[in-house]
Task: inverse folding
DNA sequence: CGGTCAATTGAATAGAGTCAAGCGTAGTGG
DNA sequence: CCACTACGCTTGACTCTATTCAATTGACCG
């Protein structure tokens, strides 16, 4: 037990779990520690494992320590839509706090390490620690803004533009958390996952990827995504580079 | 000036502006008053007016007192996607707090009354009043969950299912704020607006509406939407009735 | 060396978009 | 009271993006 608590704390203080919280401004070590004390021991998940099912009645959050996860909504016909991708440092399941039963299932897209954060103490912590609450509020708003952008693309842009936008945004997020080159990073998503994200069939995803390869825009090879021409991808997607607010009020 | 402040306060204490805040639990009159004191004088907007443009550099929020508004993202080709609809009591523009420039324009879908809430004092208020912060946090999560549902429908469901879902959700929201019959309520949206919401052309929206009329599912007439068969709409959309959390921690 | 999962390609089909024209109705002004 | 206008609704015909179904190839693993 001691062991896992130490491991957990180490992850929260040194690992990428911290970085995400600091996106909108410094967070006191005290705030980070109290969040760490809420978290349960790390659990391992394999690709495809369900981290939290949409049939789980009791609400709980997860802190993603390692690997990629996604929130998936399953339709009646069995197809699924991934509504967001989460990278290490993200807190999973916050939207579910607002509803009595989850609409989405949280799945591991990769080998994942995550720990549980129980909902009640989490909310109590927010009310205890205004600055941490403000930071998490802003992080939630950012994810909502991101969902709005995807919604707009889904409704108005053809599939290849949506894929271009996905690549651009993944590039931005990945470059924030690893010190590897921004233009080449691990890509655990299969073509079917990408299809579930951008709302197309696997077959069509494949054709777009082929097209991107031919146009020297981007290539996926050996579970790595290489961005060959970010500017042209931005132009194709019709989006701008993401600029986070630098709030004066924090 | 006295006059408008009184009008503003009245709206915040009696009107539907209060109701939305109380969705997840009681909010102290004190909390409501301090939010009221932040708000500027009410301003009138006509249908089509821009409440906050995506070119406005300075971030500010709005409190919607009357009428319907929407957040719209405009694409390069001039088409637009409405990412959310807001009803009286909603706070507009929160996601924009997280980015340095807005991605969306907030437009009036109807005759609208709204007042400005400056961003900095708003965030400071959140850090001052934990309970108000928690409530607004949950409201944001709910809107994000709602966006996720729409995203899933947009990616995986045909246009008629998306329209069915829109009608069902609008019905739920409208019945919360007026005491008129749940199955018949004002509908300021034009067919082009509905198309912008569900991501189809006006022409196709028209055909779906005709289909709904023939199947006795729902009818729009004289700026009113009448829901004829909510259960079949739910089934068609493949969604369940919305159940808000009843948090034990508030 | 089969077994499983992922990527790839072709052919037929359907959902939705675009273009273009016609219709209804409310409001305005003579 | 009628004519004119503006806006929104309705419908048809054609096109195209993306889907579905099906089959094949390739890669990795025990």
Result:
């Amino acid at each position: 037990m001691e062991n896992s608590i130490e491991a957990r704390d180490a992850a929260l203080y040194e690992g990428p779990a911290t970085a995400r919280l600091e996106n909108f401004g410094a967070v006191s070590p005290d705030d980070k520690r109290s969040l760490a004390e809420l978290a349960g021991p790390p659990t391992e998940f394999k690709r495809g494992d369900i981290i939290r099912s949409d049939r789980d009645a009791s609400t709980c959050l997860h802190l993603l320590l390692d690997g990629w996860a996604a929130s998936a909504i399953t339709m009646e016909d069995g197809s699924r839509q991934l509504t967001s991708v989460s990278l290490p440092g993200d807190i999973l399941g916050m939207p579910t706090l607002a509803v009595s039963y989850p609409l989405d299932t949280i799945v591991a897209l990769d080998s994942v390490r995550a720990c549980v954060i129980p909902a009640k103490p989490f909310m109590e912590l927010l009310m205890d620690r205004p600055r941490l609450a403000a930071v998490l509020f802003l992080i939630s708003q950012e994810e909502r803004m991101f969902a709005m952008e995807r919604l707009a693309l889904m409704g108005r842009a053809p599939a290849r533009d949506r894929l271009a936008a996905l690549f651009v945004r993944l590039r931005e997020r990945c470059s924030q958390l690893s010190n590897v080159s921004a233009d080449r990073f691990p890509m655990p998503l299969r073509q079917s996952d990408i299809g579930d994200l951008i709302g197309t069939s696997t077959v069509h995803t494949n054709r777009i990827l082929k097209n991107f390869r031919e146009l020297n825009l981007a290539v996926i090879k050996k579970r790595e995504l290489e961005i060959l021409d970010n500017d042209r991808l931005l132009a194709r997607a019709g989006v701008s580079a993401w600029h986070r607010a630098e709030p004066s009020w924090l």
